[in-house]
Structures are given as structure tokens and as C-alpha cells.
Amino acid sequence: MHKKSFFKNILLTYSCIAGVLLMALFSFVMLRNQTVNIKREQGKEIANFSASIDRWEKEFSNFFNISQSIQSLPSFDRFALCRSEDYYSCLTVLYNDLNRFKRIVTGENYNLLVHRYGDDTIITNNGTHSLNFVLKELDIEPHDYEEIILKAIDENLYSESYVLDDDKILYVCVKDYIDTQMIITLYTPMSKWNAFSKVMEKPAYLIADDRKITDWRTDAYAMPDHFPTDSILVRTPKVYSYNKSDFAIASSSYVNLYYILPLLSFKIKDVFVFLLKMSIGFLVIMTVSYVIVRTFSIRLYRPIEKLIDTFMEFSSENRSEENENEIEFMARQVAEIRGHNQELIHKLDARNTLIRDRTLKHLLLGRLDENE
Known about the structure:
The chain is α+β, with helices and mostly antiparallel strands. It is built from eight helices and eleven strands. It has a five-stranded mixed beta sheet, with helices on both faces. Helix 1 (5-71) packs antiparallel against helix 7, helix 2 (74-81) runs antiparallel to helix 3 and helix 7 (268-314) runs parallel beside helix 8 (326-365).
């Protein structure tokens, strides 16, 4: 008999059961916490993203409202329709009106460019300058600016055009007259959007999908193929899964411009990290479960060990099967004891019958020999 083989079996079995149960519980808790944390982080990201979208929608709204307000200035129309001899006087009046308008309405958030199409003189925030000089300051080639204006002129309904650059966003609006056009250009730094990406510590994308938008950015992104653009909500971020990644996407209410933010989600790297943590946790859990099961198993096994020692002390034959465990050994000992008891009972029964017959015989013969 292999002593304590049954104990080892119990220890191994219950250690495995306890380890599997604890591991399942540990995995469930970890996955649940990971899921909850990801959803919580996604909620924070979406809230910040939504606030940023509102700010940018306000920017686009201000572009439109400011350009409409400028067009409503009487000096704007007078300058557009003035004769050559009244050109500089009308230009001065318009410049003064734009200065007052900028201080009252736009503050320091926007830069203004106003000029008549084909003129070399342009009105800016701080005076009048040559068009080529201003374009050089803005790092825009003259022929590119010409294409932007022509694109805005071609837009019969809105007569406006946008330009996305690495440094700025330009809004170009054209008011058409009989024989000329007035150009209003507003621009604001792109750093506002880039600042949001820095705060989020991840890139957030502006994707243009409109012929009114010219994208000059170095890292310009296009809308992925087969993406459900029809279901994207206006100004309200909605979570979409694409190529096993989650994105918060919303569209602009003014142009076909999409705001896209990659959300925190499980990646392959995260899966490997999670499996590594699970493996370490599994080893720790198996060690703990082994110690716990061993402690309780020893206490539960002590009565069995005492029985085995007793059986081995009083066993008539010091022999055991090579492959049997403690329970099999005790079962065999109990069977042998029962067999011995049955044999003794049979012997006693036979002896009692013999004694009874001899006693009756002596009684009938009238003699009783105590020595017999």
C-alpha cells in the first residue's frame, strides 16, 4: 500500500477544483473591472470630445454670422460699387467700420481679410496691405488663393469655401455683384484643435468630405470605405466599431466635415498583457489554494490515518497490495475481519450444537459427568 496516496489524490483534486473556481472568479472580476473602466474612460473621452465639437461648431457658426454681418455694413456695398475716384475714400470708411465691428463682435479670435476681387489692396486687422504680402504671411500661394475664391464663386447657393491647413482654418465667402465680387476671408488657428488632441493624449481627426472644403494638411485623412456615414449624428458623438476599434464620430451641421476620436478599447497588446496578468494571478491563486486545501485536508485526514495505523498494528498478516490506497486497504481489512467473524460464528454454532447433543444424551442416561 502507498500510504497517503489517497491523501495526495484528495489534495490534488480539491486543489485543482479550488484553483479553477478561484481563477474563474478572478477572471470574471478582472474582465468586469476592465470593461467598466473602459466604459468609464470612453464616457469621459466622449464628454470632452462633445465639448470640443461644440466649440468648433461655434467657430463655424461665427464664420457664417460674422461674414453675414460684414456684408450688411452699408460701407461694404458702397466700396464694392464705388467708382475709381471714390475708391480710397470708400476703402477708408470700410476699414473704420470693420475696425469698430471687430472690436465689438469678433474680439481677438478671428483675423479678417476683406477685398474686392481682382484688387491688389486688401483690408486686414491692422490696416491695408498688398494682397501678395498678406498671402506670403499666411504661407499661401497666389494661385492657390485664386482657386479657393473660384471654388467659393462656383457654390451658387452659399458662395463660401473652407480651407484646412496645418496651422489654420480659413473661411472664404464671396458676395456677388453685377460686375464684381467682394471677398471676405476669416481664419483662426488650427492650434485650438491640436490642443484638444494634446489634452486627450491621442489624435482627434477632422475629416473633410465636401467639395467646398480644401484640405492642405500634411496628415489629411479620408473617410474609410464602407463606413456608415448616413447614420452619423450631427454634433452628437456616436460610438462605432470599425476594424476591431471603437471610434466616437459626429458630423458638422454646417459642412460635410466629420469629427473622429479613437476611443480606448482592447488591443492585441492589451490581450497579451491581460493574459500575462492572468498567468501570474493563476500561479498565485494555485499556491494559495494549495496551502488552504492542504491545511484543511491534513485535519480531515487525521482520523483516517489513525484507523490505518490501527489496522496495520493489529493486522494478522503484514501484507498489502502494491497499488491499493488507504481506503482500499481499510476496505480489505474490514472484509477480512468480517470473514474471520463469520468463520468464528460458524465454529461457535457447530460447537454449541455438539454441546447441546451431549448434554441431552447424558440427561437421558441419567448421568452427568462434569469432566466430559
